[in-house]
């Protein structure tokens, strides 16, 4: 499985990649624009991602904007419902409004920083991976 890890904090990104490495090949990016480019390119080549972890706070755009755009890219490319990427939003604060926006926007679940390997394993099981 291909995994896209989107987080502007290098330490958090590397920690997530290390935890998820057992599930597949991780690609890490630091901005929303990079995430959209990599995601779109993968879908166009017919090799989409199975999982995206997406930080809510990015330097160039809100994670909720990136989430909406990822789902739009899937729609534009006629990705079937059962083929859509699983998306875990990652946040350092459990703001109810942001979490709600993420869920309405199409994320599968969310993780609050700091996170542990056990928390990630639980979330991965919960979303069916």
Short description:
This protein is of the alpha/beta class and 129 residues long. Helices cover 44% and strands 19% of the residues.
Please tell me about this protein's structure:
With 129 residues, this protein is an alpha/beta fold. The protein has a single domain (2-126), classed as Rossmann fold (3-Layer(aba) Sandwich). The chain is 44% helix and 19% strand. It has helices at residues 10-20, 32-44, 63-76, 96-104, 117-126; strands at residues 2-6, 25-29, 51-55, 86-91, 109-112. It has a five-stranded parallel beta sheet, with helices on both faces. β1, α1 (10-20) and β2 form a beta-alpha-beta unit. α2 runs parallel beside α3. It starts with a strand and ends with a helix.
Salient structural properties:
129 residues; alpha/beta; Rossmann fold; 5 helices; 5 strands
């Amino acid at each position: 499985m291909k995994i896209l890890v989107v987080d502007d904090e290098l330490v958090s990104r590397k920690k997530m990649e290390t935890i998820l490495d057992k599930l597949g090949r991780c690609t890490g990016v630091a901005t929303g624009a990079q995430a959209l480019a990599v995601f779109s390119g993968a879908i166009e080549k017919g090799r989409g991602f199975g999982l995206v972890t997406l930080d809510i706070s990015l330097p160039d755009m809100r994670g909720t904007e990136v989430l909406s755009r990822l789902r739009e890219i899937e729609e534009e490319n006629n990705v079937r419902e059962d083929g859509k990427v699983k998306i875990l939003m990652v946040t350092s604060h459990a703001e109810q409004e942001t979490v709600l926006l993420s869920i309405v926007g199409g994320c599968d679940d969310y993780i609050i920083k700091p996170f542990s390997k056990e928390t990630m394993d639980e979330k991965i099981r919960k979303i069916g991976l």
